[in-house]
Amino acid sequence: MELDERKKKILQAVIKNYLETGEPVGSRTISKYTDLNLSSATIRNEMADLEELGYIFQPHTSAGRIPTDMGYRLYVDDMLSTREKELDKKDRKLDDKEESLKTMQEIMDKRVDRIEEVLKDMAKMLANNTNYTSLVSMPQANKNKLKFVQLTQVDEGKLLCTIVLEGNIVKNEMIQLDRAIDQQTLLKLNLLFNNTLNGLTLQEINFDMAANMADQSGELGELVSEILNAIVAAIGAADGIEIFTSGATNIFKYPELSGNENASRLISTLEEKEMLTNLLTDSLEEIGESTTGIQIYIGEETPVNSMKDCSVVTATYEFEDGVYGKIGIIGPKRMDYEKVLDALKNVTGSLDQKFGKGKKK
Amino acid sequence: MELDERKKKILQAVIKNYLETGEPVGSRTISKYTDLNLSSATIRNEMADLEELGYIFQPHTSAGRIPTDMGYRLYVDDMLSTREKELDKKDRKLDDKEESLKTMQEIMDKRVDRIEEVLKDMAKMLANNTNYTSLVSMPQANKNKLKFVQLTQVDEGKLLCTIVLEGNIVKNEMIQLDRAIDQQTLLKLNLLFNNTLNGLTLQEINFDMAANMADQSGELGELVSEILNAIVAAIGAADGIEIFTSGATNIFKYPELSGNENASRLISTLEEKEMLTNLLTDSLEEIGESTTGIQIYIGEETPVNSMKDCSVVTATYEFEDGVYGKIGIIGPKRMDYEKVLDALKNVTGSLDQKFGKGKKK
DNA sequence: TGTTAGCACTCTATTAATTTGAGTGCTAAT
DNA sequence: ATTAGCACTCAAATTAATAGAGTGCTAACA
Predict the structure, then answer these.
(1) Cα–Cα distance measured from residue B25 to residue B69, given in angstroms and rounded to the nearest whole number
(2) Which of A261, A263, A278, B144 is the most exposed place for a label (fewest CB within 10 A)?
(3) In Å, what is the separation between the CA of A44 and the C1' of D17?
(4) Residue of chain B whose Cα is closest to the Cα of A168
(5) Could you read off the pLDDT tens digit of each residue along chain B, which spans 361 residues?
(6) Proximity of residue B32 CB to strand C below 7 A
């Protein structure tokens, strides 16, 4: 059995209605709502078919139907493809866009230098606008080139190592040494590191290079490798991806999420943040493939266990040339996907425009 | 009517029992549990008195009694004073202490330089150990002396300003200028700032000084004041106190907290963090007064609205000489105060010992 | 053959009624 | 002053009754 046009329409209607009400939708509702002009009995037959096909189900006999993950998936895919088409007509919901862009602008103008603050604010704004939970990752520096390194003596035998990466991401690391260092040596070291490391990415600073540098610097060898370690540690994956979340408590607004104890598990996950990297790193390599950098996980599709009752939508933003970050929304499966997509697109758009080169047409 | 010895004992018993069970405790229970050897009827009479005095109450007629805030307060104060006395016998729960000290040590040794990480881990550990919610504030730098400033040119007209405070707290700030700066000027500026600002606290860098410096530096005046602003901003209260929380979801373990919608409000507060500063700054000036730096808020006593059903215990730790931070536990009013006090004391103890000078005898 | 009206049936949700038990307050006896 | 005893209260748990939404199926209809 295939999905004919009518079935599609009915499915659509069921889902749309469920998105709005959160209640199982029955045949009579559909019969009245749609312009199909069919009796509830007919709808019932069709819905039985749709159930058999796996797009909808009843929580119990004598209840209306609810979309399955598969149903949502069809709905969302459909929506995405029509959106693509409509993208040319730029007039889509211009008013909405305007408004949220303005808010965005305000946030951006506040303090451009403090990326962290900007991202946090952005997450907050997203959560407020959508009434879902939002998360934002700091732009990943891993693949980013080193701009310069600076060593400064802070105390006896205590060096402060300041590192600036392409994209003006700054990292600090304290290095504790077992002896003091004179000004001369410090200068030499600074020169050495800058000459050798400039323009390299973290990946390119490998063991060979470390050995090489240590050799070349003779008696300072040990010192050099010690410092190099610190540098790698400072930039490195060691400290993972930084992620900010906001609006975690919004999930209490959706009974299907807040009812069971999963609510607590979900909030726990958001608090721990470790699991969240799965959501945001997973799809980073697929950027080329997808036109928009947008990823949608529905229910069981999500890689995070505590979110199996949720849907997650993530998008990629370009922070500076080549430096990407991710931003996402977590909500109930019956989230307003349209709204979420718009919100994400606005935000990433603003970010690209403000920081990035706006390379997307 | 005054609290005679027997009433005190009964109150104590009621509270102790309630702490453990979380259920209203009735007269029979007390009659059996205590060594008072009194019948339930007698206890009932006494309990009626205690209720009239405001130390306990019944959630409804024909239920057992529950301590009021006032009851808790008496209990806690009493405990504190006996603890003080017992402080000499150092053998208190040595085994427990040992264990948690070990964990502490592990965390500390991990990466001493990354205070932030250490504090986060500590918060996590505290939350895990106590099954309550924990919060830790970054040591406040406001009153801390400036150790040195370093300006570096990162891009055309983009300066990186690295600031190190006493206690080796590092701050970075990007400064966007409308013109490029040559190496010469940069050196001059660095010298100027270091000479002028070294050893000063944020408070001491005031307007007069700014004007003065600007004047002295002639044509560079504008530039100087611009940079000075950035420095102040970087250190300043502008970005508030940084606070980490952990174990927010632990509140779901206590029905009296998780039941109503306050749970959500509480978690919201923890997420926002802004309100939390009230908890942690409020009592900072009272350090001198209280011997231990420990503060206990019970129910209505807490300055944060969403925590009126909770108790909050905070303690002060000394990070480096003169740099204080706070650490706290949020839990139900019937929290295990003993345990919490011990946990906090261990942690602050370890911190003082590791970083600070252990000035407390 | 596809559509529809009609009806019996199912299951949840809500409300009401009933029962249970813990705990109290009071009184009268010790 | 203490206690045994009893009547009383109230929340919580259990059971019963009712209402209502929605289905599946059958038989009639165009």
Answers:
(1) 16
(2) A261
(3) 30
(4) B154
(5) 678 888 999 999 999 999 999 999 999 999 988 888 888 899 999 999 999 999 999 999 888 999 999 999 999 999 998 887 776 555 444 444 455 555 544 554 444 446 777 888 889 999 999 999 999 998 775 566 788 888 988 878 788 888 887 767 777 887 878 778 888 888 888 888 888 888 887 777 776 777 777 777 777 777 788 888 877 777 764 456 789 999 999 999 998 898 777 889 999 999 998 889 888 875 544 444 445 688 999 999 999 999 999 999 999 887 666 667 899 999 999 999 999 999 998 887 766 555 544 443 3
(6) no
CATH architecture of B5-80: Orthogonal Bundle (1.10)
**Alpha-carbon torsion angle B179, A111, A166, B161, nearest 10:** 60
Residue type, A2: E
Cβ B314 vs Cβ B327: under 8 Å: yes
Q: Which helix (H) or strand (E) holds B169?
A: strand B169-176
With tokens 């490195």, the residue in question is A236
Task: Please report, for chain B, the start and end positions of each structural domain, with discontinuous segments joined by +.
Answer: 5-80, 95-140+241-360, 146-238
User: How many Å separate Cα B280 from the centre of its chain?
Assistant: 5
Identify nearest nucleotide to residue B42 by CA to C1′ distance: D2
- B146-238 matches B95-140+241-360 in CATH topology: no
Nearest-CA distance A264 → chain B (Å): 6
Give Cβ neighbours of residue B24 (< 8 Å, ≥ 6 apart).
Answer: B18, B58, B59, B63, B64, B65, B66
- Sequence-ordered list of residues with C-beta below 8 angstroms from that of A354, at least 6 positions apart, any chain: A108, A112
Contact B164 A164 (CB under 8 A): no
Q: Does domain B95-140+241-360 have CATH number 3.30.450.40?
A: yes
Q: B146-238: what fold?
A: Enolase-like; domain 1 (3.30.390)
Q: Do A271 and B246 make contact, defined as CB atoms within 8 angstroms?
A: yes
Query: Shortest CA distance to A267 belongs to which of B134, B249, B127?
Result: B249
Question: Which residues of chain B does A164 touch, with a Cβ-Cβ cutoff of 8 Å?
Answer: 152, 154, 160
Tokens of A294: 């947008």
Q: How far apart are CA A243 and CA B140, in angstroms?
A: 24
Residue B230's DSSP bridge partners are none
The minimum CA-CA distance between B155 and chain A, rounded to whole Å, is 9
